Amino acid sequence: MEDYEVIVLGGGPVGLSVARDIALSGFSVLVLEEHPAIGEPLQCSGLVSPDVLHLAGINNDIVINQLKGSLVYSPSGTVMPLMGDKVYALAIDRSSFDYQLYMQALNAGAEVLLSTSAIGLERAGAKVIVKTTSGDKQVLYATKLIIGAEGVNSLVAQFIGMPPPEIKVRLFAAEAELQNEKCELVKVFLGKSIAPGWFGWIIPLGKQNARGGGGVYDYNLSLYCCFQLLKESYPGIFKDIKIKRLTGGIVPLGLIQKTYGSNAMVVGDAACQIKPISGGGLYFGLLCARHCASVAINSLRQKNYSEEELSLYQTLWESEIGSEINTGLWYRRIFSNFPDSRIDFILRNLNRPFLRSLILKYGDIDHPSKLSKKLSSYISWLTHFDL
Questions:
Q1: Could you give the 3-state DSSP secondary structure of residue 314?
Q2: pLDDT along the chain (387 residues), means of 10
Q3: Do 47 and 90 touch, CB atoms closer than 8 A?
Q4: How many domains does one find in the chain?
Q5: Sign (positive/negative) of CA torsion 35, 65, 228, 365?
Q6: Residue 316 within any structural domain of the chain
Q7: Residue 177: inside a domain, yes or no?
Q8: Three-class SS of residue 359?
Q9: 324, 369 Cβ separation under 8 angstroms
Q10: How many angstroms separate the CA atoms of 219 and 169, rounded?
Q11: Which end of the chain has fewer beta carbons closer than 10 Å to its terminal beta carbon, N or C?
Q12: Would the pTM of this model clear 0.90, i.e. be above it?
């Protein structure tokens, strides 16, 4: 049985970032990734802020398109244009993004095993035994610290008794050939029939290619049918679309009060470190990866893997993004219950030059609370106004 000081479950960007930082401090780290290739299958829209590349230590060569605003479509089809001068977001080659983090982790000294799934965890004295399977072979590994970065169905989360997410949103997405007249603008579609409780989107990758999709709260609804309704609702936009690749996934939302236990921490999607407004997880996940790694390094140096020692991780990440998650959840709960008539009313009243200028000035995809504070009194009036 091989022994490592840290084992990370999940070879996505967050898990690889944690592994890289711990390995750079001289500790032995093993990453277990269930899929045969890093970055596949693609389960992300690949829309990030420039700060994400900075956090990951990756340069701009993976950027496919720069986005400077959006066109927001109300359920009735009215459009609110938000067109700015600065770059608000980047459409990136997500597979390349993941692969570069993989190489960073390897160069730092971490080991990464692909096509290897963790199927069981158990305590053995001061260590955790990880039971894995790869093909028809089973192997046991021992570790002082186990870190769960394996997404919504985290084995480590179950191991420490972490509560389930408050909300699970199902996403459907596609890469497609699609004509884009304004390739610097993301299109956002609202409406109960096409994306109940969530939204639909088109992210241009250039003049002729895009990523599109939608999400739903309701598990009784068909994601594919919702996407078909989106296309039928906007035939001019989706004319001659040719889908090249389909993907999807589940976005877990909530503010988890305990993401640690003895010998264990949970990070990224597995810990619901996700923006409730958009469902994006890279920025929050990479921020929390830094805190997870720093607490792990200190724990290893102190040779103390107790729950009390690792509780600092919760304090650090909550102090950085906890209020953002809480604010986002508050708006998300309200929005998910609105009928289409209320959404139409809100967008119609926000679609004014002064308010659009405020949105463009304070809009930040990583810190939506900045804008919500500026618009709080107005939005409160709109959400409670008796139609």
A1: helix
A2: 96 97 98 93 83 94 96 94 94 95 98 97 96 94 98 95 92 90 94 90 95 84 84 91 88 95 98 94 97 98 97 98 93 87 90 91 88 75 61
A3: yes
A4: 1
A5: positive
A6: yes
A7: no
A8: helix
A9: yes
A10: 8
A11: C
A12: yes
